[in-house]
Amino acid sequence: MTEYTISDYLLDVIKTMGGDEILGVPGDYNLQFLDHITHRNDMKWVGNANELNASYMADGYAREKGFATFVTTFGVGELSAINGLSGSIAEHVPVLEIVGAPTNGVQNAGKLVHHTFGDSDFDRFIKAHETLGIKTTILDEGHAIDQINETLTYIANEKKPAYLVLPSDLVNTPVNPALKAGINDLFTTAEKSAPASIEAIKQAAAKASHPVIVVGHEVDRFNLGQAIQDFSLKNNIPVVDLGLGKAAVDETFANFVGTYNGTISDEAINHFVADADVVFVLGAKLTDSVTGGFTQEFDDSQTITLSTRRGTIFGQSLPADFDFVATIQGLATTDLNLDLPAVQKPAEPATLQASDQPLTQAFYDRALQDFITGDKTLIVEQGTSFFGLASQNLASGAKFFGQPLWGSIGYAFPAAIGAQLANPDRRAVLTTGEGSLQLTIQDFGLALKEHLNPVLFIIENTGYTVERVIHGMNEPYNDVPKYRYDLIAPAFGASADQYDFIEVSTEEELIAAMKKADQETDKMVIVQANMGMKDAPAQLIETGIRFEAQNH
After folding, report:
1. Backbone torsions φ then ψ of 260, nearest 5 degrees
2. What is the pLDDT of residues 155-213, one digit of tens each?
3. How far is Cα 88 from Cα 379, in angstroms, rounded to an integer?
4. Residue-wise pLDDT tens digits, 228-238
5. CA pair distance 73, 28, nearest whole angstrom
6. What is the pTM of this model?
7. Max CA-CA distance within the chain?
8. Looking at CB atoms within 10 Å, which of 79, 152, 375, 434 has the fewest?
9. Nearest CA-CA partner of 221 in 67, 21, 17, 411
10. What number of other Cβ atoms are within 10 A of residue 489's Cβ?
11. Which of 325, 288, 287 is nearest to 308 (CA)?
């Protein structure tokens, strides 16, 4: 491996984008490529227990750091990962999957090799990814460098995932090492401006008396939170975020009034949107799980929508110079001359007081809100954790990762491990139900092997609460086996000084566990939080009613 190869060039581009660790699972079609990773001194291979976990973990890594890469093998590996990669396309997360494939000679000869259907068709898995809308690239020797450049700049510019197939006979193909000098230039983009779009927005909003800004996930992906805060403060416009996009703006800044979830939002938050005459919807998807089942009280006739997909004013397209990033950056310094009064934020909740009463979901959510300081990233599983915590305002600097659109249970645990790996200086805090955890529990071993020290809250309430509140509260299909969570860490190889396990059943016990977790920064801390089977956040119960009606 003394020659500079296609693989080395690909990895140099990945490194330039911030990919210090490469995730995935080895398979014979990718092993030669993995050698190029493990023989570097500036990059680390981190092997997962399975490909689904690798895809989830890459998603969490990318949300924390801005980009992630994972590697699978052809057929069996990539199909295991396709669920996680689909979540990344749904929720706009910049992840690269590299698939090690049979040689071109094998494929051209139509040989009946393993990890195929035995029918000489080597394109079906690629077509599956194309059908899902994931950018796909199959490297060929004559164009590999251009293909790598085009694929990786697509990820950088669009903040979306891509899928790259590397036939194993190309892994060690030599290329000119002088190509490395041009990598940085790939990511230098010309400044854009959108004066016509900004002027059109200014004219459309000129008579607004009760405007509001609704913030979504694309604001986070393109780091536009500060620009929106500046626009809001310059014009005294209140800001809400959606659960899909939570903490994209600083939730302590003066004009932030809360997280909006349609009519099931707290009334102190809901009225800002319900009473609005102009609604700026910025970088958002108005999905059922973050709009109270499509109960948002506005429509195109009063909406200025700016997203990566479109820009419209009251249903009509913005001028041709519209660009999502440039337009929002331009708004940061735009004075709409509205002469609006200062925003009156809703009252803060009373200080939390713990007692010896049994732990409830409501107390747990408030306690987690207080526990998440600005140096932590909160990763929430879809269900009781998401719907209980999305409505809680977070400290300045805190991050919030959830998956309310794709909603694949089991996502949050590997995503939390990915976030912790991506940034050891921020503590990842997971909250998940025991049912969801069982789907992806295998990568406890990876977390311990890598000496990662997240805080893991496991809600033990005898099953799939999110499903119970939708349908089948007492049905056996919503029950799950009861695990011994105190034995998980040692079962996956932890030494006694590497972790702490704490079981809590009362309010005071939970607060004590949180204080201990903050002291034990050198350990993985696992907290089993015992709660009642039918105890669920109010917004989850309301959402469940709407989902059940929607399913008939």
Report:
1. -95, 140
2. 999 999 999 999 999 999 999 999 999 999 999 888 899 999 999 999 999 999 999 99
3. 15
4. 999 999 999 99
5. 7
6. 0.95
7. 73
8. 375
9. 67
10. 24
11. 325
